[in-house]
Structure formats: structure tokens, C-alpha cells
Amino acid sequence: MMLSVATAGVILLAVCIYPGYALYFHIGETEKKCFIEEIPDETMVIGKYKTQLWDKQTNSFLPSTPGLGMHVEIKDPDARVILSRQYGSDGRFTFTSHTPGEHQICLHSNSTKMALFAGGKLRVHLDIQVGEHTNNYPEIAAKDKLTELQLRARQLLDQVEQIQKEQNYQRYREERFRMTSESTNQRVLWWSIAQTIILIMTGIWQMKHLKSFFEAKKLV
Amino acid sequence: MDVARTFFCVITVLFVIVCERFLALAAFSQSLDSDFTFTLPAGRKECFYQTMKKDASLEIEYQVLDGAGLDIDFYISSPSGQILYSDQHKSDGMHTIETEEGDYMFCFDNMFSTVSEKLIFFELILDNMDGDEEPDDWKEYVHGTDMLDMKLEDIMYTINNVKARLGKSVQIQTVLRAFEARDRNLQESNYYRVNFWSVVNLVVMMLVSGVQVYLVRSLFEDKRKIRT
């Protein structure tokens, strides 16, 4: 009885810490995989990854590999590096954006031993949470002593706040888009007029020059 | 010895209960939607995998945001290797699959392009992955008199409804963001294109007129030499 309870506890614990049903992909040894997150300002982003190494002997992926790390580099919309760190085989990175725009999250493996005993294949499970998805509601519920209903209401408030932030950012992007469109339209108009004027002037100059040339050569 | 065993048993049971409670809470607030935007270089193929449970549903929506032609090849294959959907040269697409147990693979193929790299956005929406954990949770936390139970249930139903709608709102927002990003990139490349070709046009015109004048003049120079 004690053994079964202990086993149940261990299994449940394992379920608790497993990242769940995250997307995964394969990465080569020197390959760098980059993802772009377009986010408004003052938004928190949490990324979690888990790596697995291909085992040639058992022809399957090992559950976890010590000593294999991933280098995470995050750039802000102005191409400045805001995070550049090495993490272990399972890692969790966090950053908060200070300018709205496209942030780039790049991952690459730092290990050169991979080709030696893995056949060069690494499986990376990745999960990136943005904005109110980063809130840890069980923790908030415990800290503020909220009932289920209050927690649901809090979650709804956070979600609506995130929607509002995204919509503000969308307005700013639409403004930029409209400025570029209008600038393009204006430029098309001015360039066409300028081209036509230059064309006409060049034609007139050509004719005048040739006429004076022929007259000078006493041909006309 | 017996005391120790009983103590250990009690601690384990308490731990299991606490852990299950957190798991339930984590389940109800965990988002199973994820979206990614990445750059696919020319002549490359990029594949992603998603582990699914039986009788869940997987919805994938993708868009090409940047890159000449704004098109990509896409296919999804089931855990048994059978190709479920295959799109050729599409700029966006959406597919919903009723899943079985296993790893689904979906790939974006840019092999047909030799020079242009594509910026691709995709969103995965997973449904029914929890099973039926949530209804049990709610029953646990509803106390009070009968009348209070009914009212609380109504309120909870409304709140669930609102949460579902807001979730849908967020998804639509993400899609709109992708559309807007694509339009914006198109217009910006338009802008550079107009600038560049206008300057080229101007230069070519001036060059041509100069060459014309020179050629005609050179014709007459030779004749003069012959006369004298």
C-alpha cells in the first residue's frame, strides 16, 4: 500500500515538472534557430526548453542529457542584444520588452561533442509564453489568498489588459504603415512628374543642340 | 518503525494531494496555444513536431509574412507517416485535424526558391488535451445553500463563457497581427523598389541621350575629314 502511494506520488511529481505537450524540432550541431516575437512594450516573455539527445545504441532519444547546453541570445527591435546566456540542457529564460517591436530569440547548441556520440541530432522542446500567459496563477492565488472565483476574475482582467496593450501596439503599427504608404504614393507622383519634365527638357536640349550643330556645319 | 512508516505514508498522501491541486490549477490556467515566427532561408525545409493525445483537436494556421512571392509549400503528416494535407505555393492556410495518439509533423518547404528567404508565422491551437479534469474542479469549490449553488453555477457558467470568447478574441488578434505584418512588409519593399527603379530609369535616360548625341556627332566628324 505504501509502495503504491509512493509510486503514485512519484508519477504525479514527474507529471508536474514535465513541460507537457510542447512543440519540438530537431537542431543540428552548429545550427542556429531563431524565432521572432512581435510584442508591445513592458511585456514579459518566458521561454522554456528541454533538450534530448539521439542515442545511437538504443535508436531513440534519451530523456535528459547532462553537460549539453544551449546558448540563448535575444535581440530587441533595434538589433541590440538584451540577453546572451548559456543554459543547461533544460532551461528557462525570461525577458521584459522595453520597446515595442520585433524581438528575435535565437537558440544554438554550444556542444561540439554532439557529433561524436549522438549522430548530430538534438531534439529541442520549446514553449514561449508572452504577456499574461506568463503569470503563475497558482502562485498568485496562494500569495493573495484568492478563492476560485476571484482567481478566474483576476485571470480575465489580466487577459483583457493584454488585449488592450496589443491593440494599442496595433494602432502604432498601423500608423507606421500608413506613413510608409503615403510616403510611397507621394514619391511615385513626384518621381513621375520629375521624369516627364526631365524627358521633355532632354528632348528639347537634344533638338536645339543638334540643330545648332548642323547649322554650324553648314548642312542645314 | 511502524510510526515512521505511517508518518511517511501520511506525508506522501499529503504531497500527492497538494501536487494534484497545483496540477489542476496549472491545468486550468495553462495555455495550449502557441505561435511562432521564424525565417526560412532559400532552398531549406523546416519541420516541427507536436505530440498529441487521442481525440484531441489540432488547428494550425500559417502565413508567409515576408519574402519575394510570399508563398511556401506546406504539409502535415500523421504519426503513421501518412500525409494529411499538402499545400503548394500558398501564402496562407488553415487546417484542423482530429488527432490520434502520437507525434504529428508539419513542414514548411522553401526548396523551390533559390534566392529569397521567407518569414513564416504559424499558430497551433490545441483543444481537448485536458480531458475532463475541469468539471470536477468546479464541483469541489462550490459550497453553500441550494439557492447559493444555483446562483454560483450561473455566474461560473457566464465567466467560463466570457473566458472562451476572450480566448477567441486573442486568437483573432494574432491573426490580424500577421495580416498587418504582411501588408506592411509588402508596402515597405514597394517603397524601396520604387526608389531604386526610378533612379535607375533616370540614369539610363541621361546615358541614352548622351550616347545618342555623341553618335550623331561622330557621323559628321568623319565626313569632314574625308572632304579635307
Kindly describe this structure:
The complex is a heterodimer of chains A (220) and B (228). Chain A is of the alpha+beta class. Chain A contains four helices and nine strands, in the order αββββββββαβαα. Chain A has helices at 2-17, 114-118, 137-144, 148-216, and strands spanning 23-27, 32-39, 44-55, 60-61, 70-75, 81-87, 90-96, 101-109, 122-130. Chain B is an alpha+beta fold. Helix content of chain B is 52%, strand content 29%. In chain B, strands 1-8-3-6 form a four-stranded antiparallel beta sheet, with helices on one face. Chain B has a four-stranded antiparallel beta sheet with strand order 2-7-4-5, with no helix packed on it. In chain B, strand 4 and strand 5 (83-90) form a beta hairpin. The longest helix of chain B has 82 residues, at 146-227. The chains are: A alpha+beta (220), B alpha+beta (228). At the A-B interface, helix 1, strand 1, strand 2, strand 9 and helix 3 of A face helix 1, strand 1, strand 2, strand 8 and helix 2 of B. Strand 1 (23-27) of chain A pairs antiparallel with strand 2 of chain B.
